[in-house]
Design brief:
Blueprint (H helix, E strand, L loop, with lengths): L2 E8 L5 H14 L3 E10 L4 E8 L2 H13 L12 E9 L14 E8 L5 H16 L7 E5 L5 E8 L2 H13 L17 E7 L7
């Protein structure tokens, strides 16, 4: 996949099953490929994340337009409290996201770049450091935002919260993470959310 969209569905309490049921059919009717659906579990709650992949920018933009103009985005417009749509391009060295069973929890981490060199410096340092980091746990994808403030999203699957804590602690202790000099090119306003795969998610 050359482009990705992360949709965040803000859902009133008790409406998650409605959204989980509606998303796959909505995605199947449009362009792109549905890759994953998650419910936020640690962080701001009552949010559903939907990840879709696209082979070209034209398809992503066409689907964005269809979603904006739909009377029921993701087939759950009657319960949606709000909706956010973000476009991303993967770091050049990242492999495309493929559906599969990767873990019981996923961590979504967002880091803002420093202005002036933040993106290229981060890509170079991540490319050098990530192979050693993945000896402890896999990074599903790292990708820069194409809209909003300059930032990037990295998604990490883990078997559970304990496995996350173990992998992060061991990689830091081994001196392989974070990338050497990497934090110098990031701002401190970072965000992390732990989410669990929804029923029927291609990424589980």
């Amino acid at each position: 996949m050359k482009y990705y969209e992360l949709a965040t569905l803000f859902l009133p309490m008790g409406t998650a099953p409605r959204a989980v049921a509606g998303v796959p059919a909505f995605a199947a009717e449009g362009r792109g490929r549905l890759l994953g659906m998650w419910m936020a579990d640690v962080g701001r709650l009552n949010r559903m994340f939907v990840l879709r992949g696209f082979e070209d920018a034209e398809s992503l933009l066409a689907e964005r337009k269809r979603t904006h103009e739909s009377v029921s985005p993701f087939n759950c417009g009657d319960v949606l409290g709000d909706l956010s749509l973000e476009s991303y391009e993967p770091f050049p060295f990242m492999k495309p996201v493929e559906p599969g069973n990767y873990g019981g929890v996923y961590e979504f981490r967002t880091y803002p770049f420093r202005i002036g060199g933040g993106y290229p410096e981060t890509v170079a340092k991540w490319e050098a450091a990530l192979p050693a980091r993945e000896n402890f746990s896999r990074c599903l994808i790292a990708m820069r935002a194409l809209d909003g403030i300059p930032r990037f999203l990295n998604i990490w699957p883990y078997a559970d919260i304990a496995a996350r804590s173990k992998a992060r602690a061991e990689s830091v202790a081994a001196g392989v993470w974070p990338p050497k000099g990497g934090p110098d090119w990031l701002k401190s306003d970072m965000d992390s959310t732990i989410a669990v795969p929804a029923a029927g998610s291609p990424l589980a």
